[in-house]
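Quick check before the chapter quiz. The format below is the same one you will see on the exam, so make sure you can read both the input and the output lines.
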Amino acid sequence: MIGIRPMQKDDVERVCRLEREIFSCPWTQKGFEDSLGLACTVFLTAEEDGVILGYAGMYAAADEAEITNVAVDAAHRGQGVGTLLVQRLINEAAERGIVKIALEVRASNHNARRLYERCGFVKCGIRKNFYEAPIEDADLMVFQR
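Here is the expected output.
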């Protein structure tokens, strides 16, 4: 059974390994460790039998939040891991009184966009040349209560 729990410092090395496999411009270990110490962040891991299958993060400010990353190991995609992580972030946001959550997603990442749409996000704009390696536009998506 897949469990979702807050990310711990001892998860960071495994999360960084996954981050490097998935993203062309990955976060650093220090970036994750620094973020974990902030009261305005929520970082979660999805795991099964002690193996991290994915992770997600969100920054909150006042009544708004931004999802910074959602990543699922390639071998576990299509099994609902990403949906569990995003839904948990939405629930955490609600508990904090957040009414609007934003995120960016590569315009070409159709699977991620469908995941976010299933979770209630809608496209509201485009950020030109937002991503590097390769340079690509980002679709800006929001979830509002």
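If your answer matched, good. The chain has one domain: 3-144.
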